[in-house]
Write the structure tokens for this entry.
Amino acid sequence: MSLNRSEVIRTRLREEGSTNRLRDILRHILRLEGWQTLWHGVLLQLVRSVPNTAFTIGTYELVVYSLHWALLTRNSSNSATTTTLKTQPPAAAAAC
């Protein structure tokens, strides 16, 4: 989201060709269109990135949780220890 301003300027550089410099385009945007123009498209960017980030974090937590349990059940030889560990979720999964 913080890079949205640079994306707007970069898009203008591509559209307007190589005759305009970064400073000229920024000056044009601020003078004629206003500073709000630098934030155009931020809502669409959030709509696209928030679900993707939530899915990535959720998948990561599920994989960590599953691997944790798989390693605990495979490596534990004492059945009492296994029972105790199975009833207590790992800290990473419990935090969600």
The two ends are 24 Å apart (CA to CA). The mean pLDDT is 75.
